[in-house]
Specification:
mainly alpha
Length: 166
Amino acid sequence: MGRPRAFDEDEAVRAAVSLFGARAYDGVSVDDLVTHLGVHRNSLYKVFGSKRGLYLIALRRHLADDVSPLVDALAGASDAAAALRLVTSADLGLLLLAAIERAPADEEVAAEVTAALAAVDQAIADALGVPSDLAAALTAAALGILLRGNPDNATTALTRYLGPLP
């Protein structure tokens, strides 16, 4: 009989979300995971299968814990400025890194990212009553603002020109 698991799987996944969200998949080694998560290498492989297995679980957790609440909050956006502020104030680090780094090389990650971004787009379209292509453009602008940094100033500048939008 094996030893009982000496770590909390939920805590390990949350820690992995943080680590992958800060340093991306390629910026995190298995040694980093072992150290940061406080698990033994064998336990990590036994529970998650691989670094990629843990990454996928962490990405899905991030989508459930951070992106889904954003989608729900967007339903209450009264105008484009409010929607932009909601997106640019959300913790979307892992989603952005997954879109840039992993989605082009990993079909499973690409599917998760695509579905998450489509949900954000649809929430904006529904809340503002705008066409889906305009909602996608607003999502893209908000994500670009996050990538460039200084979301408050960029959002304020952009929303000055979005007055005609709902």
